Amino acid sequence: MNPRILIIYTGGTIGMVQRPDDGSLAPVNFEELSNEIPMLNKFGYKINAITLSPIIDSSNITPELWFKLAETIENNYEVYDGFVVLHGTDTMAYTASALSFMLENLNKPVIFTGSQLPIGTLRTDGKENLLTSIEIAAAVKKGKCIVPEVCIYFNSKLFRGNRSSKIDSAQFRAFESKNYPPLAKAGVEINYSCEYIRKANNDTPLKVNYKLNTNVVILKIFPGIQPLVVESIIDIPDLKGIVLESFGSGNVPEFDWFTQLINKAINKGIIVVNVSQCAGGKVQMGLYHTSKDIQKVGVVSGYDMTSEAAISKIMFLLGQGYTYNKVIKYLNTNIQGEISL
Q1: I need a surface site. Which of 12, 20, 178, 261 has the fewest CB within 10 A?
Q2: CA distances (Å), 250 to each of 25, 219, 247, 258, in order?
Q3: Prediction pTM value
Q4: Structural domain 216-331, CATH architecture
Q5: What is the pLDDT of residues 185-199, one digit of tens each?
Q6: Is 13 one of the annotated active-site residues of the chain?
């Protein structure tokens, strides 16, 4: 049987074509996608498309869109062999990270892609990104899909979704995964690095987790940060989690007031997880004296998680209704390949 692929269009640059009358950009009708990209017919796959309504710029993404995406995949899971999600680049890594936690026991590819130039322009990167994403979503070996993960494909590389970050808004190389190798590289052939790809559990049915707690915040440390700023964040009503973006390998200002305020947050039951502002490397709390104090008061190491993965993971864990200690335990557990321990 020919592979069956579902394209889900959420919005974003990739889905725009230039109107011949006035030159303005308008969304393409993805239900008639083959009219825009005739090469799709050469695959021999059964390719269908769904456009989520309303289509939105990815800067306006909210968890409600994540729920719509997850529901669309769940409702079509038994019908299709793989899914390609077309998404704006600005928040793609957040959505891919969130879906990696929401789609538990996933054993089919969910490939996110987009473009830096609209698909209707001459120099667009969108056509190659889309065509290769479809081919990856359909790829099988010995009767099983090769990449049963939530991934991002961009500019000839396939990355694990919850290991990816947008690193450039002006080049076609928009995404990178500094702390985890690419799962595949596309040249004349698509070469898969199977040793880095998570194995599917084909005996366990898909479980979609729709509960997230968004009472969380990212606190980025910078030279000159004032006590009132940190205290105002900690005093946000019903705040449950803080992703602390620290310097280097997990370092923060070695000021008494800062440690006292972080301790106050933890005493209020707020979970604080420490991730690095650096694109590569990991948090090693206690390596330098400037991280020992917050380690002592109970800040959790985020190791080498991206900020996108950390914020979506803490939303997910808090949404499950776990106890404080259980959330801490799972933050220090590799759930969906998001962390290296």
Answers
A1: 20
A2: 44, 13, 6, 14
A3: 0.95
A4: 3-Layer(aba) Sandwich (3.40)
A5: 999 999 999 999 998
A6: yes
